[in-house]
Specification:
Layout lengths: L4 H12 L11 E4 L2 E2 L8 E6 L2 E10 L2 E4 L1 H4 L7 E5 L9 E10 L13 E5 L13 E2 L10 E6 L14 E8 L1 H7 L8 E5 L4 E4 L5 E4 L2 E8 L10 E5 H8 L2
Length: 247
């Protein structure tokens, strides 16, 4: 999450052995992905701290943004804004300040359970081809076997540079039993897992949307390393959290 020697050491340990603590994908990256235009994913926003990108998010209502609780838990609403409507994370588009932050009341930083946060903006987003609401996965959707796309401005590889332009990557769902085997039983029913060979979300992509069949099914949450074949990416399960998200 922070570029320090301590985190670098933890990342190295995550490759060599099964770690005992989760590494939230702050500063995230899209690993092995491809560049896209904002018109292809107009629900994507950049969550910014005094103008600097640090997490992703998605438009779920004219004045509401869905992101990860680990992205917002240390901040006051007045510190944050969202940048929307541009392929670039810094240029073009529109900036709107955050008015209110609501992390899930059961969010647990030690387990990463319930890792979602809903932001209320000071004013509505102006909708258009570059800014649109993403619907949430229906309650009756059957889990398993899905292919999805995750988007963001995260770095290109672990501890690597972050692109100025939006990237996307396609990933496939990993069964709950397989993901739990990889993570020693740490995957709860409010998490889902996706991966693809040498492709993944990573730090800086945290809070960003995982989308399948035109609906958001996940929020980038945590994982060990980025695109590590042993460890799928872990996402907050929007289907199980819709009662809190409430749109």
């Amino acid at each position: 999450m922070f570029k320090t020697l301590l985190v670098a050491a933890l990342l190295a340990l995550a490759v060599e052995a099964r770690p005992n603590s989760r590494l939230p994908r702050l500063d995230g990256r899209i690993v092995g992905g491809y560049y896209v235009e904002i018109e292809e994913h107009p629900y994507q926003v950049s969550l910014q701290y005094y103008g600097s990108h640090f997490c992703g998010g998605s438009i779920i209502a004219p004045n509401k943004i869905l992101t990860a609780a680990h992205c917002t838990v240390k901040y006051n609403a007045g510190d944050l804004s969202i940048h929307y409507g541009s392929t670039s994370r810094e240029e073009g588009g529109t900036v709107v300040q955050v008015k209110d932050i609501q992390e899930h009341y059961a969010y647990d930083a030690s387990t990463m359970d319930f890792d979602v946060s809903v932001l209320t903006l000071v004013s509505d987003i102006k909708m258009g081809k570059n800014a649109q609401i993403i619907g949430l996965v229906p309650h009756e959707t059957i889990e398993g076997g899905r292919t999805a796309v995750v988007t963001g401005w995260g770095a290109l590889y672990s501890d690597g540079p972050s692109p100025q332009l939006l990237k996307a990557v396609k990933v496939r769902e990993v069964s709950r039993s397989e993901c739990n085997a990889a993570y020693d039983g740490q995957i709860s029913n409010v998490m889902i897992c996706f991966r693809e060979h040498e492709k993944d979300a990573c730090q800086g992509d945290s809070g960003g949307p995982l989308v399948a069949d035109g609906a958001q099914i996940g929020v980038v949450s945590w994982g060990y390393g980025c695109a590590d074949p042993q460890y799928p990416g872990v996402y907050s399960n929007v289907q199980k959290l819709r009662g809190f998200i409430n749109v």
